[in-house]
Design a protein that fits this description.
About 40% of the residues lie in helices and about 15% in strands. The protein has a five-stranded antiparallel sheet with strand order 1-2-4-3-5. It folds into two domains: about 25-70; about 75-210, Threonyl-tRNA Synthetase, Chain A, domain 2, CATH 3.30.980. The protein has helices at about 25-30, 30-55, 60-70, 75-100, 135-140, 140-145, 185; strands at about 110-115, 120-125, 150-160, 165-170, 190-195.
């Protein structure tokens, strides 16, 4: 997409607050995956310590089997790698919003509501803040792709809810079995409009008959 004034929506001589001014609940939501992993690791450690002190090795064998068996399969490794990249992309998206003008004057950035693996990368559902729209994400598509270490990024806006944006990150050729149910199943397969004129719909919908455009 051609560069446009949306890439610098704030006057150069205006003093803005430091970006990242979010509430405690928002910060906890952004760290939900890491917090759940720490909690799970703590529970596993306590369980193993309790089992070994009582001389029972059955919980230890069960836990190690539950971890090692999926890791030994190709599908299990693909699942783990795909969700690892989801966490990475979520944090990189937050960083690129902070480093560009995709934040409000109060320093709040868009909220990544959900991010799932696809066969070529990740797809994120984003809730924009007041003063930010899908067109601004489209203007920063190249910065987003670079920040996520991906090939490219495509932005889609919701037909009826302009505050909802889907960002599709493409980082590799298709990997069968790595994808989770797409975001199109949550809000409808025909609900999204691409910000790029050469792409009409998300990649998982190409090849299907298109519905008439809403005027």
């Amino acid at each position: 997409m051609a560069r446009n004034p949306r890439n610098q929506i704030y006057p150069a001589n205006e003093d803005l607050p430091v970006a990242g001014g979010s509430g405690a609940l928002t910060r906890l939501w952004r760290l939900r995956t890491e917090l759940l992993l720490v909690l799970a690791a703590g529970l596993v450690t306590l369980t193993l310590l309790g089992a070994t002190q009582q001389g029972g090795w059955a919980p230890f064998v069960a836990l190690t089997s539950a971890i090692s068996v999926p890791a030994a399969t190709r599908a299990g490794r693909n699942w783990a790698v795909a969700h690892f990249w989801c966490v990475v992309s979520r944090h990189r998206l937050q960083r690129v919003c902070l480093e560009t003008t995709m934040h409000t004057r109060a320093g709040r950035i868009p909220l990544v509501l959900w991010i799932t693996p696809t066969t070529t990368g990740e797809k994120a559902l984003i809730l924009t803040r007041a003063g930010i729209c899908a067109e601004e994400f489209g203007a920063y598509a190249e910065e987003i792709a670079a920040a996520c270490w991906a090939r490219n990024a495509t932005v889609y806006r919701h037909r009826a809810r302009a505050h909802l944006v889907v960002l599709e990150i493409v980082r590799r050729d298709e990997v069968p079995g790595a994808a989770s149910p797409g975001l199109d199943r949550l809000y409808g397969r025909r609900a999204w409009v691409s910000m790029r004129p050469d792409i009409e719909e998300p990649s998982d919908m190409r090849g299907r008959p298109a519905l008439p455009q809403v005027g």
